[in-house]
Amino acid sequence: MAVVDRPLLNTDLDAVFDPRSVAIYGISERTSMRIAENMTKPGVPFYGINPTKTEACGVTCYPAMADCPGVPEMVVIGVGHGRIEAAIDDVLSVDGVKVIVTPGLGNEAGRDGPPISERISARVRDAGVAMVGPNCMGIATPGAPSPWIGSLHPTFVAGPVATLAHSGSIGEILVSLGPRVGFRTMVSSGNETVVDAADFVAWFADDPETRVIGLFLEAVRRPEAFEEALRRVSEAGKVAIVMKVGTSEMGATAALAHTGALVGSDRSFSAMLRHYNAIRVDDFGDWIEHLEVFGRERPPRGRRIGVVTNSGGEGEYFADKAEQAGIPLSLFSEGLRAAIMDEFPNFLHVGNPVDCWAIDDDRVVFPRVFQMLAESGEFDVLISAIDHSYWLKGTERNLATAIADDLRKAVEGTDIFPAVVGVTTADPPVEDLQWAREHDIPILKGSLPGLRAIAARLNHTPYTPPRRDVPADTPLAGAGALPEIDSAAVLADHGVPYVRAERCASPEDAAAAAERIGYPVVCKIDNVAHKARVGGVALHLADAASVRAAAERMGGSVVVAEQASGGVELLIGAVRDPEHGATVAVGIGGGLAEQLDLVTAALAPLDDAGARRLVDSLPALGRLLGDVPQGLIDAIVAASQMVAEHPEIVELDVNPLLVTAERAVALDCLIVLKEPA
Fold first, then answer.
1. CA dihedral for 410, 412, 417, 418, sign (positive or negative)
2. What are phi and psi of 655, to 5 degrees?
3. pLDDT at position 106, please?
4. CA within 20 to 30 Å of 311's CA: 225, 290, 387, 626, which one?
C-alpha cells in the first residue's frame, strides 16, 4: 500500500460503525466466540482467517487475507502479541481494508507490548488505514456488526448518545446499563496509537444519528486536534458531556502572576471545554444523568419548574436539592393554588412540590393536578418526583407507573418538558424504561444528580465561539516581568483602563505627583512583582508628608496612584498553557486571590457573549456583582484579545480590577513577556 499523509483529523470512519464486511484474523472457538456473535449480522459477509481451520464460531475460515473471496472492510486482530506483526502485514497486503481493531497488546504482552505496538501502529498509519486500539474492548453499535470482546445484552439499545471511553471497564458498564440510555455507539479506544478521541469526536459531530456525545477521558493525546473536533461539535449544534480522570495541576511555583498560580493544566482543560460549549462533570452518576437528559429530543423551553410528589418529606428534600442544583422552585400563583384547593378541599396547603398523597383517589387527584399545572401556563418543566425502583412491588409499583403516565398525558400536545426524578439511585423496572424511551421522557436516578442534569440542559444554549487563530500583532518591547507602569500602559492601549498614576524617582517627586493626582493616594515600590509581600504598598495616604515618608521607606523609586474605592475587587489574568495556549481567567481578586482560589477560566480570545458565559460560570461573581457591569465584560474581552494577539505574553495579571456599576479599572497589573531564546 502507498504511504499517505495523515490529516489533523481522520473522519473516514464509517466502516468503524457500520462495516459492510468483517473478518476476525486468528478466529478460534477458544478466544472468539463472544466477539464473533457480536459481529454476526444478517447480510454482512463475515470471514475467518485461520490457516489451521476451515470453520470456527460458525464462520468459514481461510488461510490468509489473499484467500478470502472478498476484502473485509473491518478486520479484528485475534492473535497474540507474538504473531501480531505478521498478521498486520498480511492484513495490509490487500487493498480495501478500512479499519483494524486490535484488542490485544495490553498487560498480557508484558514488556514486549509497547515496542510491538509502536511498530504495527507505524505500519498502519503509513498505509492510511484506521486502527482502534491497541488494548481496547472494541466498538459496540446497536444494530451493526460490533467488534466488542465482551457480552452485549439485548437491553443495549439504539439511541442518539455516542460515547467513547479510554477505560475498557467503563465501556463494559455503559453497554450493561440497560435500556434507559439509548446509544448510537460505544467506543473503547484503548491506547489510541492511530485513531484517537479527536478523530471519533469529529466523526460524531458530522453523524446525523448522534445528538449528544459522552466522553470518559484519561488523556488528550493531540490537544490541537481535540479542540478542532470540539469546535465541529459546537458548530453542529451538539454537545459533548465530558468526564476526565487522572487530573493534575501544572506546577506553578515559579509563576510571577497570581493567575499563573491559579490556572493549572486541569483548569485550562475545563476552560477549553467551556470555550467549545462542552460540559464537564466530575461524577460518573452525574455523567450518566446528563447523557440521559441531553439525549432526549424535546428541549426545555424555560426554567419554571412544577413538581408533583406523593410525600411531604420527599417534597421538601426535592426542593432543597433543586436549590442546590441552581434551579430553585418557585411558588404557584395564588390563582393556581386556589383552583387546586377549591377542587380538592382536603389540601391544607399547596406548595411546590405539591404533595397529592391521600388527598383524594389516586386516579383522580394525580392526573387532575398534573393537568391543572400544564394548563396554567406557569411551567416549562413538569416533574413526577416519585420513585420507580425495581424493588417496589404491588400498589407502590403500579402507582409510580400510573402517575408517570399522568404526567405524559398532561404534557401531550404542549412544549412542556416532562421528567421523572426518583430519590433513590435504584434501577427502574425494564418496562418503565421502555415506556420512557417510547415517549421521550427521561427517568432520572437520584434527586440531586437528576436535577443537576436538568439544570445543565436549562443552562446550555447554542454558542459558536470566535476562532482562536487570530493574527499576531506587533510584538511588545521588553522581556520578563514589565514594571507596573509599563504593564499598565500596554493594558490601556488594548482597552483595559488604569487608575491615574505616575512613576516617581524620589520622595519629592512622589509628593508632587500626589498633589497633581489628588488625595488620598497609594504609594507602591516600582518594578517589583507581588509588592505587598515585601511591604511595598502604602494605602490611604492623605498628605505630602505621609507620601514622602512612604517613598523614603521604599527607597525613593515608587509609583504614586489614585486611591480608588468602592466596588468589588476582582482578578483578570491570562496564562499560556502548554497544551491549550492562551487562557484567560476571572475571579475574586485582592490579596486573598490565591488563598480563596475562586477563579474560572476560558480560552482566549473571547467575544462579549463568551465573557458573560465566563462570569456566569463562577456563581460567586454573580452573588458579588448582581447585574454584571459592561465595564467588566469589556475588560475581559480586551485582556483576552491582547493575550491572543501577543504570543510573547507568558502571563498577565490585573489584580485587583476594581469593578463598579460605572467602570472597571485596574489598580495593579503585571505583564510577563517571553525571555529571549
1. positive
2. -155, 110
3. 83
4. 290
Report residue 306: phi and psi, to 5°.
-115, 140
**DSSP for 147-163?**
-BSS---TT--EEEEEE
Q: Can you tell me which residue has the cell 477560566? A: 601
Rounded-to-integer distance, Cα 253 and Cα 264, Å: 11
Between CA 384 and CA 299 the distance in angstroms is: 17
Is the CATH number 3.90.230.10 carried by domain 14-246?
A: no
Cell 451538539 locates to: 238
| The pLDDT of residue 511 is above 70 | yes
Task: Tell the burial category of 472 from Cβ atoms under 10 Å away from its Cβ (0-12, 13-18, 19+).
Answer: exposed
Residue 672's DSSP bridge partners are 481, 651
Same fold, 14-246 and 300-459: yes
Residue 255, pLDDT score: 37
Helix, strand, coil: what percent of the chain each, to 5? 40, 20, 40
Joined grid coordinates for residue 251: 506546577
User: Does residue 225 sit in helix, strand or coil?
Assistant: helix
How far is residue 177 CA from its own chain's centroid?
22
CATH 3.40.50.460 fits 500-562, yes or no: no
The model's confidence at residue 266, banded by pLDDT at 50, 70 and 90, is confident
| Residues 669, 487 contacting (CB under 8 angstroms) | yes
Residues 6+ apart with CB under 8 A from 82: none
Q: How far is CA 561 from CA 492, 534, 554, in A?
A: 15, 18, 15
Q: Residues 65-88, buried b or exposed e (16+ Cβ, 10 A)? A: beebeebbbbbbbbbebeebeebb
SS3 call for 580: coil
Q: Is 347 helix (H, G, I), strand (E, B) or coil?
A: coil
> Residues 550, 557: contact at Cβ < 8 Å?
no
The one-character DSSP state at 173 is H
Phi-psi region of 216 (alpha: psi -120 to 50; beta: other; left: phi over 0): beta
Q: What is the pLDDT of residues 434-478, one digit of tens each?
A: 999 999 999 999 999 999 999 999 999 888 888 888 899 999 999
Q: What is the DSSP string of 34-90?
A: HHHHHH--TTS-EEEE-TT-SEETTEEEESSGGGSSS--SEEEE-S-TTTHHHHHHH
Give the residue carrying C-alpha cell 439511585.
425
- Phi and psi for 75 in degrees, rounded to 5? -125, 125
Distance of CA 288 to the CA centre of its chain: 13
CA 666 to chain centre: 32
The pLDDT assigned to 151 comes to 93
Query: For the CA atoms of 214, 219, 223, 226, what is the dihedral angle to 10 degrees?
Result: -20
For the chain, domain boundaries: 14-246, 300-459, 500-562, 568-673
Query: Of 415, 511, 487, whose CA–CA distance to 671 is shortest?
Result: 487
601: left (phi over 0), alpha (psi -120 to 50) or beta: beta
- Reported as a single tens digit per residue, the pLDDT across 522-558 is 999 987 666 766 678 999 999 999 999 999 999 989 9
Q: Beta strands of 297-349 (E only): which ranges?
A: 305-309
CATH code of the region 300-459: 3.40.50.261
**What CATH number does the domain located at 568-673 have?**
3.30.470.20
Which range among 99-113, 217-231, 237-251 shows the weakest confidence by mean pLDDT?
Answer: 237-251
Cα separation, 23 vs 166, in Å, equals: 24
